[in-house]
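agent> fetching stored inputs for the iron/sulfur cluster docking request
agent> found them:
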Amino acid sequence: MAKTHATIPIFIPHLGCPHRCAFCSQISTSNTTSMPTDTDVSEKITSYLSTMPVSVIHREVAFFGGSFTGIPSEMQRDYLQAVDPFLKKGEIKGIRLSTRPDYIDNGKLSLLREHGVTTVELGVQSFKNHVLEQSRRGHSVSDVYAACRQVKDHGFQLVIQLMPGLPGESVEDAIHSAKEAVKQDPDGIRIYPAIVLSGTELERRYRDGTYTPMTLEEAIARCVPMYEMFTTNNIPVIRLGLHPFDNAHQDAIIAGPYHTAFGFMVKSRYRYRQLANDIFNYCKSDINISEGLHIHIPEVHAEEYIGHRRENILMLQRNYPQYKITYSITSVDSPLFEGL
Ligand code: SF4
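agent> prediction call returned; pasting tokens
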């Protein structure tokens, strides 16, 4: 299917931030070292547009990597005005940006509204104060609630960014954060499991033994119920896991659950749980299963249901050794089972 949406990313690493949060190194995660000028912004948009397929009808510009509303107002205007000609010509449909929850107020949101911003992404990370404190965020959960409400009240799309696995966070805290995020009625969620990046406070704590990152398996297990909660509440999870690091920045990853296929792994585990649960209920029913079980897998999410190298099917076969489990990919909306 042809791509219809595209985001033109403009990275402003740490611009507007009051300090460095314990886990953060935007230089590493954005693969960017220099700060763009408004001319750079304009040239980057022109360059992206020149190579964009005609099928891409929804084009956005995104300012990521810093605290946009913490930048002096004049500079915010300069950046946003660089996008303005493209908005006026209809070549760009909207602007999204990320910022801190404690850098939101009516004046800041009015400025964004005047300049065509459509989506505000809040780096919430956690809805637990002790996690925010240990991560040196410098704001509290009450700032988060207030910011979410104001962003919605001003008519912006709200995206909440969460970071499971931060210092002091338990599995229950992560579930709590997901539940509270759902209550804010966001239009999207990004989930970035915490990893230890070079030069951060977290690296120092990791090296002196006062912080232990999640393993990859722990991170998948922690993110699956979060993903499930958002999915069942029809809230799109627009990102799961950090964007892939290029080769030059691989050394910045010191420890933690970094994997380029992290999002697929979480979604695939979620689908496995769905299948296992459905099979459990199916087998409890009166349906006669003598020889085996055939699963009709929805083609729309077939790869996630089947898993990498058929691992979900193999796991089902291990857990139900009494049945021969077969499957086919069909146009059903959700998995269907057939006793053989
Ligand atoms: S997490 Fe956000 S506020 Fe903290 S240093 Fe990074 S970009 Fe700045």
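agent> quick read of the result: The chain has two domains: 5-259, 268-339.
agent> awaiting further instructions
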